[in-house]
């Protein structure tokens, strides 16, 4: 609620002060601060923070009366009383210095070269806008016998206590009344005011060192010198000595300081052990009841009570919503009103040194809150830091301890939630904080709504605004939007007192000392009063809020001297002419809205409700406000100032009315937060209907209140209606400080239960939270909050305080509700709530949190649990499809020692693994492998991993398959039958699988699409992947060495595994089988992804081995279609010029049938006529026609147009051979260059696929050529329509020992592709015409071989090679040896696979029960 930000401000102390400051105190409105030293008095102004005067006492005065100790302001700021060390009280008069010009202002404001005189208001000293020039003069003094221990102002008198144990009352003129003094020993003390017996203090030399007065409590909170704490109460305001009675604060024997909260009726006592105790008064018995404790937990700072020392100071904020406490050994903390720790300086970042906190911690001597709680004035001392650098300070005592020095006056800056002073903001789902001159907004919708021009903006109240838009945690950002209030408003109205934001989060309004201003986020414009007199005549006193597009304020009219309620339209100028004004009989303390009803709380303890009706008048909208009801609550509250929040809701204690005929949109109840107790006033439904009185409808009265909860800081409700999430929307959320949060949840009857069999009701569910809640997102099941983050910057040896930043925090609360309902056997209601939240993306995480918290609590419990909750939680989670995932993720995040308890309730993990396999949840099954790894023998986990690997490969789960391969290779065969030791807490990481799941492979696929990206080539194996050249002797040597090392190649593992083991070979066989399966089905892209994700997989070597088996292409047309589909590559289309050229060719050849087909195809593709020819697609030059003599060797190519592009990647063949073709012929001069460029550009965009796919295809093209898979390289070249790649492929087939069957299949496949292009895809016809010469080259190669050797299978080919005599230099002898080796490898692979399969069948009966 209060959060420090930035660096502290250091206030410079004049050099003429030889003594350090010791005490600071502010006046009533916290605009002036008196700072005491031993012999001087300084008065500072709050804003700007400057020194007004410095009054130094003479040496004679110091020697006569003693040095200054404490001070106290008179309520009207006209006098200051100072206590001295010799028992005197000095009275000083504070008045304006008339000798100072510039309207008695000590500082002059300049606008350029011109000085602006401050405007002076009449009546009060501090009502002017300038900084007043003051002077101090001593009036009188009085000597107190025994010395003064503490001094405080009570109304128009001073109350002090002495070292002799007396409490005296003196006037400001220095006169003392002896009859009004009382001795502490004569005061009767008891534990309550009714039943206990009173007794006096019997100890000697007991006095009151600390005391504070509370007019709302009607007494004094005191700390006695013996360590006890008590509350002194009086029956009358005259403070008669015989009327004083004390009530002991039980359990307190070591009190050190005290602070009183008037608004919440609390008193906090600081203890010498570093903790604090906060008490409230029982209104029935008058006893002091413990509300909560103030302590720093071990999570925030370990052993804080042994480090910090005694708690020396306690100061409540001006609004009573937070408390600051300081310790003797340094440091301070801020708690909320009911004990939630907001900030603690003990855990701050003070540097890297171990003694950094000791030397840089703030030892606070005195502190005081500034105006509205935006500043904390601190008088602190810090130790010398020279010892940190290894030096010994010069001011150390004989014990070597460092003396405190560097007395500083610091000003800590704070921001606070708008809920502290404007609790009506609890209806909004925004994080909204306010500082002294700026606002902090965290609104995720600001980036998604209102992106049009300012003139087109729609406000939520206007027609056309999307009603389904609501703030969402998922759309929110952790970045704060800081809105600075303009200086022309805040310059004379500092600080911000009230701030409000509308429900859409697009409009904010602020109110300072006078007037108000509002701001629109969508157009970033402020609106201020044009008439400054109107601004100065209005003071916002009861808060402000937004109702649709109107600003509603409760204010005091200074000119008319009356209290009013005003509504200003947002769209109009900020002027009273456009305002709707309603008079109220007394001051408005609080206001709030509920749909179209305005509810206000007045100072006369009356609640008034008004109906608001918007009128769409022109040119500016107006509202009509009418009073509809008034409720007197004076008999139910102790004082109107104790009411901290008022809310009008449609909630009732019983939700049966929701299902009745009465609509749920009516205002059913009033919620009042009275000093932390939530009271609920409900309408009396005994009358059934509202009574009409004439033309008006008289509202139903309210019954006596019921107390819903206690220790309530904030209340959240929403007027939104959502039938799907009625449990969450109609719930009431309570923030209870150190007690966590509470939700008042409605319970609706089941549909199959009659109304008489079930009484609908509500249930209060408490739970703890890890953040301080500032907003509740009802439909998103999320709590939003804020926290501080400290960062230390090394700015100097003596200035090393951390820089504080503000961060947004969030927490899911759904699992807390489900757990509480299951604990109370309300599983049906838990299911209803859970089912309405299944669409939330973090719903599976909620189930994990639910299971994890219950498991940790029950499994680590030392005592037996008679009714465990875990079985109910497991049965509850089984109702959702995320059950298997929830169990696996929870187990992985839990210690292995708790798995026995978990799986005894959940079931056998092997069965859950098999269920995951059947349902296709492979990643969840992988999580269960980790569990089986630690609960079963390695042979069992290996068996399940093999099953999962095979399934993952079939489903193209490449990342999972890669991790499973690593997992299998990491299993030591010698430990296959060794049972795991339970519970080894680090065994989950010992086998490497858990860490493997998140490792990045060397050739990482895209996490989104699992595509392979071949930029570099670490997997190709350059040493063994080069194409064999025609060399007889070298070929024989290679064949012999390959035959001799066949066994070594079979057993070589491609990763970090156990080389030579059958398991490693079995993995390789499994991977090879899947690769064959992919390649035989023409899924070339999946083959690339497979090879990229399998670490160390030698794709080139494997393709060489399979080029006559799995890598052969039987159906070129089907393979080409599959490539188009897998790589999302469009089929080519014809341009107009290509169509005309083909028409001429067909006409010249008198092929009427072909011409008709061409025209028919052109008609079908007329829509896609605007295509292009890529830069790598050549056309046939007239010098290289198919009938020319050069057609058999090479083709002279020329590009139509070379388009420079960053992604223009031509093939290596085109790059290497471009210099051999000579110069290109020029284009026809009659051709229009601009039209050609446009046509080619459009053609390129239409015919080319994604850039990523092109990179992949070109990489695979190089791989296939290197591996000798010329059929695939030819298909890829055709897909890319790259003539150079086709030339390279044909040349490879011509100049290497390529098998004749491969060449035959290439030629036959091209013929089938030409037929397919003629009938189905005419866009390929120009390309096939361009490669006509290469087709003829393949035909010649085929014709040079015997006809019976063409297109034979690998078996027949190898047998024919055995019979035929090899020709010298053609490499057929090497091919024969390769075939023999491959057949031997295949037979041995099959034999080892059968052996491993038998071994797994023998081990499949292993019992997986948890031992």
Automatic annotation (TrEMBL):
Domain (RIC1 C-terminal alpha solenoid region): residue spans on this chain: 815-977
Region annotation Disordered: where it falls in the sequence: 1015-1060, 1343-1411
Biased composition (Low complexity): 1346-1359
Species per Swiss-Prot/TrEMBL record: Lingula anatina (Brachiopod)
Keyword field: Membrane
Lineage: Eukaryota, Metazoa, Spiralia, Lophotrochozoa, Brachiopoda
TM annotation in the entry: none
Record-linked SUPFAM superfamilies: WD40 repeat-like
InterPro entries registered for this protein in UniProt: Ric1, RIC1_C, WD40_repeat_dom_sf
Compositional bias of kind Basic and acidic residues: 1028-1043, 1360-1373
Regions of compositional bias (Acidic residues) in chain numbering: 1382-1392
Name recorded for this polypeptide: Protein RIC1 homolog
GO CC field: cytosol; Golgi membrane; Ric1-Rgp1 guanyl-nucleotide exchange factor complex
Gene that this sequence comes from: LOC106171633
Localization, UniProt: Membrane
Example of a GO biological process term: retrograde transport, endosome to Golgi
Chief place where the protein resides: membrane
Pfam families found in the cross-reference section: Beta-prop_RIC1_2nd, RIC1
């Amino acid at each position: 609620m209060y959060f420090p930000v930035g660096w502290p401000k250091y206030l410079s102390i004049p050099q003429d002060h030889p003594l350090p400051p010791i005490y600071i105190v502010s006046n009533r409105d916290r605009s002036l601060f008196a700072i005491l030293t031993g012999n001087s008095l300084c008065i500072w102004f709050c804003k700007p923070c400057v020194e007004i005067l410095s009054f130094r006492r003479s040496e004679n005065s110091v020697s006569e009366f003693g040095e200054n100790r404490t001070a106290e302001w008179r309520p009207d700021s006209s006098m200051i009383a100072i206590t001295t060390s010799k028992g005197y009280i000095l009275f000083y008069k504070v008045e304006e210095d008339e000798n100072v010009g510039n309207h008695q202002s000590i500082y002059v404001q300049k606008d350029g070269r011109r000085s602006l005189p401050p405007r002076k208001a009449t009546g009060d000293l501090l009502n002017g806008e300038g900084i007043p020039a003051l002077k101090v003069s001593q009036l009188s003094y009085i000597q107190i016998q025994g010395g003064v221990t503490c001094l405080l102002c009570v109304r128009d008198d001073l109350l002090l206590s002495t070292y002799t144990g007396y409490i005296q009352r003196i006037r400001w003129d220095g006169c003392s009344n002896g009859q009004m003094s009382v001795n502490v020993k004569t005061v009767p003390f008891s534990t309550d005011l009714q039943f206990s017996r009173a007794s006096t203090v019997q100890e000697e030399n007991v006095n009151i060192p600390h005391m504070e007065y509370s007019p709302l409590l009607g007494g004094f909170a005191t700390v006695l010198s013996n360590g006890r704490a008590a509350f002194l109460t009086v029956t009358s305001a005259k403070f008669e000595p015989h009327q004083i009675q004390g009530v002991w604060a039980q359990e307190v024997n070591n009190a050190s300081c005290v602070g009183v909260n008037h608004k919440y009726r609390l008193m906090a006592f600081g203890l010498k052990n570093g903790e604090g105790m906060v008490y409230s008064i029982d209104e029935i018995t008058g006893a002091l009841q413990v509300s909560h404790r103030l302590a720093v937990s071990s999570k925030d700072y370990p052993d804080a009570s042994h480090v910090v020392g005694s708690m020396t100071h306690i100061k409540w904020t001006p609004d009573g919503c937070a408390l600051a406490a300081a310790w003797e050994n340094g440091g301070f903390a801020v708690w909320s009103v009911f004990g939630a720790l907001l900030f603690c300086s003990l855990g701050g970042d003070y540097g890297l040194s171990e003694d950094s906190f000791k030397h840089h911690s703030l030892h606070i001597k005195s502190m005081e809150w500034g105006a509205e709680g935006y500043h904390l004035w601190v008088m602190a001392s810090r130790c010398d830091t020279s010892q940190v650098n290894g030096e010994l300070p010069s001011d150390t005592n004989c014990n070597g301890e460092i003396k405190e020095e560097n007395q500083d006056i610091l000003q800590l800056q704070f921001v606070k939630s708008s809920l502290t002073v404007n609790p009506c903001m609890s209806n909004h789902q925004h994080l909204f904080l306010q500082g002294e001159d700026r606002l902090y907004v965290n609104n995720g919708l600001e980036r998604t709504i209102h992106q049009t021009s300012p003139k087109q903006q729609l406000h939520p109240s206007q027609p056309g605004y999307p009603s389904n838009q609501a703030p969402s945690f998922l759309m929110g950002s952790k970045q704060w939007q800081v809105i600075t209030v303009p200086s022309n408003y805040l310059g004379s109205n500092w600080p911000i007192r009230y701030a409000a934001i509308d429900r859409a989060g697009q409009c904010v309004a602020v109110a300072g000392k006078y007037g108000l201003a509002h701001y629109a986020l969508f157009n970033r414009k402020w609106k201020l009063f044009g008439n400054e007199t109107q601004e100065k005549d209005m003071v916002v006193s009861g808060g402000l809020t937004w109702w649709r597009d109107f600003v509603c304020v409760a204010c005091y009219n200074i000119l008319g001297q009356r209290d009013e309620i005003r509504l200003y339209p947002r769209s109009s100028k900020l002027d009273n002419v456009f305002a709707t004004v309603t008079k109220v009989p007394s001051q408005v303390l609080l206001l709030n809205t509920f749909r179209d009803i305005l509810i206000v709380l007045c100072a006369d303890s009356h609640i008034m409700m008004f109906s608001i009706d918007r009128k769409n008048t022109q040119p500016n909208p107006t509202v009509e406000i009418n009073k509809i009801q008034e409720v007197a609550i004076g008999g139910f509250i102790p004082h109107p100032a104790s009411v901290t929040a008022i809310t009008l809701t449609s909630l009732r204690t019983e939700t049966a009315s929701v299902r009745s005929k009465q609509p749920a949109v009516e205002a059913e109840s009033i919620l009042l937060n009275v000093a932390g107790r939530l009271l609920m006033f409900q309408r009396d439904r005994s009358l059934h209907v509202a009574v009409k009185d004439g033309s008006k409808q008289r509202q139903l009265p309210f019954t006596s209140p019921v107390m819903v909860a206690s220790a309530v800081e904030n209340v959240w409700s929403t007027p939104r209606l959502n039938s799907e999430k009625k449990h969450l929307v109609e719930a009431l959320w309570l923030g209870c400080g150190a007690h966590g949060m509470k939700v008042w949840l409605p319970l609706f009857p089941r549909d199959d239960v009659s109304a008489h069999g079930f009484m609908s009701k509500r249930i209060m569910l408490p739970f703890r939270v890890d953040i301080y809640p500032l907003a509740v997102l009802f439909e998103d099941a999320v709590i939003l909050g804020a926290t501080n983050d400290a960062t230390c910057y090394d700015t100097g040896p003596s200035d090393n305080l951390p820089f504080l930043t503000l961060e947004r925090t969030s927490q899911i609360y759904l699992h807390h509700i489900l757990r509480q309902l299951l604990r109370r056997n309300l599983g049906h209601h838990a299911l209803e709530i859970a089912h309405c939240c299944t669409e939330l993306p973090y719903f599976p995480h909620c189930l994990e949190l639910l299971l994890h918290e219950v498991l940790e609590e029950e499994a680590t419990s030392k005592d037996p649990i008679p009714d465990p909750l875990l079985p109910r939680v497991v049965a509850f989670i089984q109702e959702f499809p995320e059950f298997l995932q929830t169990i696996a993720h929870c187990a992985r995040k839990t210690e292995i020692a708790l798995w026995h308890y978990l799986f005894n309730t959940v079931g056998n993990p092997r069965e859950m693994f098999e269920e995951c396999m059947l349902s296709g949840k492979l990643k969840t099954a992988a999580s269960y492998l980790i569990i089986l790894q630690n609960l079963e023998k390695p042979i069992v986990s290996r068996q399940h991993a093999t099953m999962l690997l095979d399934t993952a490969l079939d489903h193209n789960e490449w990342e999972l398959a890669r991790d499973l391969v690593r997992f299998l290779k990491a299993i030591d065969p010698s430990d296959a039958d060794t049972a795991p030791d339970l519970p080894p807490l680090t065994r989950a990481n010992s086998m490497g699988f858990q860490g493997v799941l998140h490792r990045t492979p060397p050739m990482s696929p895209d996490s989104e699409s699992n595509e392979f990206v071949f930029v570099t080539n670490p997997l190709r194996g350059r040493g063994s992947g080069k194409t064999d050249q025609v060399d007889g002797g070298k070929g024989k040597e290679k064949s012999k060495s390959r035959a001799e090392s066949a066994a070594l190649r079979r057993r070589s593992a491609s990763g970090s595994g156990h080389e030579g083991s059958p398991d490693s070979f079995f993995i390789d066989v499994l991977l090879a089988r899947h690769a064959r399966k992919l390649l035989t089905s023409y899924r070339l892209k999946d083959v690339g992804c497979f090879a990229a994700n399998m670490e160390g997989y030698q794709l080139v070597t494997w393709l060489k081995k399979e080029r006559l088996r799995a890598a052969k292409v039987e159906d070129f047309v089907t393979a080409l279609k599959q490539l188009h589909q897998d790589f999302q590559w469009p089929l080519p289309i014809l341009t107009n010029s290509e169509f005309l050229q083909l028409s001429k060719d067909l006409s010249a050849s008198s092929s009427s049938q072909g011409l008709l087909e061409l025209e028919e195809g052109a008609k079908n593709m007329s829509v896609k006529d605007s295509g292009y020819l890529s830069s790598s697609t050549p056309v046939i030059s007239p010098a290289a026609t198919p009938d020319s003599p050069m057609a058999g060797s090479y083709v002279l190519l020329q590009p139509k147009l070379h388009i420079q592009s960053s992604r223009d990647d031509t093939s290596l063949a085109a790059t290497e051979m471009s210099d051999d073709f000579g110069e290109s012929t020029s284009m026809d001069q009659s051709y229009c260059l601009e039209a050609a460029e446009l046509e080619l550009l459009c053609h390129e965009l239409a015919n080319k696929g994604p850039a990523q796919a092109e990179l992949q295809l070109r990489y695979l093209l190089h791989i296939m050529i290197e591996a000798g898979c010329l059929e695939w390289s030819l298909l890829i070249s055709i897909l890319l329509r790259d003539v150079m790649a086709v030339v390279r492929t044909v040349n490879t087939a011509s100049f290497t020992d390529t098998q004749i069957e491969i060449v035959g299949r290439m030629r036959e496949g091209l013929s089938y592709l030409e037929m397919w292009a003629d009938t189905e895809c005419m866009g390929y016809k120009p390309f096939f015409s361009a490669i006509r010469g290469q087709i003829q080259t393949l035909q010649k190669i085929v014709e040079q071989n015997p006809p019976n050797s063409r297109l034979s299978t690998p078996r027949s080919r190898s047998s024919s090679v055995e019979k035929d005599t090899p020709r010298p230099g053609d490499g057929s002898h090497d091919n024969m040896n390769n075939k023999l080796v491959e057949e031997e490898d295949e037979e041995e692979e099959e034999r080892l696979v059968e052996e491993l399969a038998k071994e797994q069948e023998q081990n499949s009966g292993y019992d997986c029960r948890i031992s």
